Amino acid sequence: QVQLVESGGGLVQAGGSLRLSCAASTGTFSRLGMGWFRQAPGKEREFVAAITRSGSNTYYPDSLKGRFTISRDNAKNTVYLQMHSLKPEDTAVYYCAAVRSSYVPSTSSEYTYWGQGTQVTVSS
Fold first, then answer.
1. Looking at residue 27, what is its pLDDT?
2. Signed CA dihedral, 90, 63, 97, 6: sign only
3. Segments of the chain scoring below 70 in pLDDT
4. DSSP character string of the chain
5. pLDDT for the residue 66
6. pLDDT of residue 107
7. CA 16 to CA 123: how far, in whole Å?
8. What are the distances in angstroms from CA 63 to CA 4, 29, 68?
């Protein structure tokens, strides 16, 4: 079983930055593909970023490329999401997810483990 705990959310003004962290309680973190998703009120869960087990490959939707960066530190069992130039439409609960696979999907249903989420609110 893998437990994921997100942190780093909060209130930020438009144009600001935040870095989210997701700590995993597992001895096999380096065998997990990791992803970030977000869900705004009344909307479906949306893919934000994914990273392969070694960190050598990252994936983003075109709409977020250049503003969001996913990274991981396998020695710390942690994955990060650095967000820049935040906009009010980035307001959502952000979730960390994990899958035991070399493949990192962009669909939420393919992930096995989920964190509880952290709220990000961007004020205009």
1. 86
2. negative
3. none
4. --EEEEE--EEEETT--EEEEEEEE-TTGGG-EEEEEEE-TTS--EEEEEE-TTSS-EE--TTTTTTEEEEEETTTTEEEEEE-S--GGG-EEEEEEEESSS---SSGGG--EE---EEEEEE-
5. 92
6. 96
7. 10
8. 26, 28, 10
